[in-house]
Amino acid sequence: MTSSSRLASWPEGGAGPRVGRALGAVLDHLEEWLIASLIAVATLVVFVAVLHRYGTSSAIDSAKWLEEHGLALAAAPLRRVFAWLAARDLSWAQELCIYMFIWMAKFGAAYGVRTGIHIGVDVLVTRMDPARARKVILFGLLSGAFFTGMIANFGVHFTAGVWDSGSRSNDLEAPMWIVYMAIPLGSALMCFRFLQAAWAFWTTGTLAHHDAAHVQGVEPEAPPPPLQADAPAHGAAGKGAVLSVLVLLLPFALLAMGMLAKYGVFHAGGGLRTTVVFGLLVSLMLTGMPISIALGLTVLSFMFLLSDISLDSVAMKLFTGIENFEIMAIPFFILAGNFLTHGGVARRMIAFATSMVGHWHGGLGLSAVVACALFAAVSGSSPATVVAIGSVLLPAMVAQGYPKRFGAGVVTTSGALGILIPPSIAMVLYSVSTNTSVGKLFMAGVVPGAMLATMLGVTTWYRAWRNGYPRMERAAWATRARAARDSFWGVMLIVIVLGGIYSGLFTPTEAAAVSAVYAFWIAVFVYKDLRLSEVPRVLLASANISAMLLYIITNAVLFSFLMTSEQIPQAMAAWMVDRGLGAVSFLLVVNVMLLLAGNVMEPSSIILIMAPILFPVAVQLGVDPIHFGVLMTVNMEVGLCHPPVGLNLYVASGIAHMGITELTIAVWPWLLTMLVFLGLVTYVPEISLALPRLLGM
């Protein structure tokens, strides 16, 4: 497994450069092998633990039943199976899985720097001229190196203290210093990768480029070329002179303000401290540096300048931030979605949807809505849904005589169902950020997901009927039955995840691990659309995406810790209550804030930053936590479908070969439908809460 891009190259000739290239190649392969192996082994460990638990209980229950019915002879082998399984203690599996993912997150984050996968807000940078953009990009890379170098230093001291204490883990009884070594080693490697990227950009003007479509595991067939320093996306010579200066000076101005407050030049009250926190975070993000780095630098700067909190606590938070078994559902769902995307499941779901609704007005458009809803229920990712369904249906719609804009608009917006219909990675992130039940959130997304799919379908049908778009012949019942049979194995994943969680058979994380193994099995051995030789590539892509999200989560936990210590959410809630703002006004403000944030950030970052701040306010004003989670998710759906950073737009743009401006115009009818739906979800909580209450959750 090799990366498609290299950050720097050695000059030809000489023993030194040859040795350097050899060592670099070894490091590259070691990095890739490590993170791909960790996600594979962790998935297998949890899956085996689930089988062990239910195998043990099933063996003894079956043996007792046989004995009660006079079949003691047949029960004897089952009792021996039970005794053998019971003697195997797998209580350590959950702890081992957490530790493996912590190592994967730290080393995968370094790999993410090499491949350019880390998410940043580059809206301003891409509008500067080449020379000024170059300075801002270098500032972001060097800031990343500074932050990760600091964390490596903290990690060394922290790990040394753990070594001296001799502490061991609870279940594995492994020395904890080995586990904590992930912090200094992973951070040091990440620092090296940032420096490597900065050197390559300084000398060659080239950065490892990561297309927005990759963010949740989507791999377009023709990735865009690397970002060139002499050709920013929108910048022109002489453009952005004042902007670039402001972008670079603003963080330093805020740091200087904090420094003056630290040495008593003026008093830093609560309002000023809050201004410094948010001002520094926003100003750092606007430089285009990875959001995870902006979060971490904000926390470190504030702790050093305006807080008495020990910096040693940073190292602990970097570890405990993802020491949560619920978080492990994210990599598993990403892995399952990747297997399904590459495994032919989408094609069979499209065939089933087309056989059912293809004969209506705009049949292929309606098929796209239905297929997106079905695939959303097994993938948890909106970009993955767009590429899986759109890559098949968009060319077919154009061939049938549909306008390209119509097809692109349908697929772009219907793909957003991927984060609303469970399982949803966005809901897992909200759960992690607010300590809310993942199972309740999943169930709360079922009715809104079905409702939005219906509204998008009605919009599609109306526009097709009004414009006289083609219809297909009604499929015979035999054809429908064959299509249903072919898609059966993919649809069964919905039953495994939701049925397993609601029935109590699995925790959400266990359900995610089982779904990953199941998706691998049907993609490789049932549908046979994915070769075994391609599995390492899927593992690496999944580990890369997972590590990026886990690294954001780690630093978001740091930021949330800072918010809590400064009591900023509580102050916001008190301010709103004192001014008589109730839940209705608050939810309106939240919608506006989230829609504006969606203009410059992608969903995972918005949820991880905004949820810990807004959630306590919502609870104090009487908003149900589950309802608030669905509301945030729907806002994220809208953000995925509008510029400048809507991921679905970029994915659909690559598939449809349309410019972002043209595609933005194309999605407006469906985007307006989504905004109407957002209003309904916001002020009719029962849409989200009816099913969980009916099920007694």
UniProtKB/TrEMBL annotation:
Subcellular location: Cell inner membrane
Record domain TRAP C4-dicarboxylate transport system permease DctM subunit: where: 278-687
Domain of life: Bacteria
Keywords: Cell inner membrane, Cell membrane, Membrane, Transmembrane, Transmembrane helix, Transport
Domain Tripartite ATP-independent periplasmic transporters DctQ component residues, every copy: 87-202
Membrane topology value: Multi-pass membrane protein
InterPro entries, per the entry: DctM, DctQ, TRAP_DctM
Annotated transmembrane regions: 33-51, 136-156, 176-195, 241-265, 277-306, 327-346, 366-394, 406-430, 442-465, 486-505, 511-527, 539-561, 581-598, 605-623, 667-691
Job of this protein: Part of the tripartite ATP-independent periplasmic (TRAP) transport system.
UniProt protein name: TRAP transporter large permease subunit
Native source species: Ramlibacter alkalitolerans
Phylogenetic lineage: Bacteria, Pseudomonadati, Pseudomonadota, Betaproteobacteria, Burkholderiales
